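User: I'm new to structure prediction. If I give you an amino acid sequence, what do you actually give back? Let's try with this one:
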Amino acid sequence: MAVTDRMELKTQKKEAALTVNELLYLIFFSVMLFSKGMGWYDGMRPYQLCLLIGMGCLGLKLILTKYTPWQLLAAAVFGVLGVLSWRCSAEKGMLTCVMMLIGMKDVRIKKVFQVGAVVWSSVFLYRILAFLIGWDKGILLVHKKLGAFIFRWSMGYPHPNVFHISYVILLAFLFYLLQQKGKKLFGWIVAALVGNVLIFIYSVSFTGFLLTGMYLMLVLYFELRSQFTKQEKVLMQCVLPVGLAFSLLAPLIPEENRFYEFMNRLMNTRLRLSKYFLTQEKITLFGQQFQLADKDLNMDNSYVFALMTYGAVVFVLLMIAYFFTIRNLVKENRRKELAITLGFLIAGISEPFLFNTSFKNVSLIFVGSYLLNEANPIRRQNTAWIGICTLGDRSLPKNAPAEKLEEKLLLGLKRIGAAAGEKKYLIAALTCVCAVIGGTAFGLTAQMPKEYLVPKSICDYSLQEVYYLDEEAVAKERANGSEVLYYMGEEIPMFRFSGVTVTVEWMRGMIGAAILTGAVGALLGTGIAEILEKGRKKSGQYE
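Assistant: Good question. You get back a string of structure tokens that encode the predicted 3D arrangement of the chain. For your 543 residues, that looks like this:
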């Protein structure tokens, strides 16, 4: 990753000093992001604590911020509608989305993405490490995929799909900050695609896999295009209207229609689920609570979910804000922002993460920045209308810990980015390869379980025999070479799986061993390379 040298960093640091307002928003953003990265959700105490801290920081930031008439109007309208949607629907999703949006006044996008990259990458890597070591396996689902029952691991997240979507969010943070072009950028994209395959091996999320590929293809396409044509600009601005039309109108097509049948099958019955809510429930102004007899009924389409759950008023205003944001991004040729925004809006057709409490829709940062920092629909924008005090605009001291940490992180990224092109790191690569080979060999020696027994409640529908096991039966199964997972008592029915299910899980164990040992090898090799470099410097053989 190309990063400026130390002198340029100091200059950049002086020009980009954090203000109190920015710091408060970054604390809010990092706390909320950390809570979702850990897999916590509404109703859990850790999440509620993070929400309380985040809301406190954001509330203080809003009070200390000075607004023009338009900015105050935009923040007030979305803020009120966010609270109304929460009170009417009992869902905090739109409230958290609005919080991310209205707090962007006087906050730089790059600062938010720098903090997001550090927080999300740290927590994401922790989740994977915890799984590979065995600290926290997370939720297990057994679904029938590609003609066989396969384990789907969530890595501590609420669902395997959420795990894969989290990888896309990580890429969005990293590729937004990435400054490399041409062949180097292509190399990073290839590395991200390899990561996509590895994540898919565990999540078996076709939606997440396709979303990742689509986002990376957008990044590559925007890089290859030196200049957009008028037709391309029009097409980019049509993504949202077309997505809305498909989401809200396609489910209303008669089920006998071939197009409906094909799309419903392709989207795993999501069209039929959307049709139920659009035809059987009323569209309200400010949101509603659903009393569903069937718990399997859910809205995986973000647009249908937002419209039906939070009401028409906030939904329409938010879509209008998105449209003008995209229009502005196209006008200013901001390709990184467009790749994220368009990719996420397309993904929203089959995934609910855009407007629920997942806090993963980082495209809202661009919407908030446009509405509160760039849009000028009201004249005399230079007139501050309200501001309790000027404390929020004050810059933090030059020796503030936050700025020191930022400088160290940027310098660290520079060293990592430069490492790929330095011969001294060949030893690190060789050590990593040797470790991978050793880890793979170790994985091959692991004994393959005879069968797996798992609770029926986490499995897809199956006509196979049901087993009830007491403690003695569980011990006997394990002694005979079978694995009993998530045992919850003798009254809980269990399914037995063998064949492809066992083989796939054994192969995952081998891959996990290779990944874990490879990472250790890379760290060890890097350390050796650094020691050798220092030795050369001392002996005068290395300049």
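You can read the tokens as a compact description of the fold. Here is one thing that stands out. Confidence is low (pLDDT under 50) at residues 1-13.
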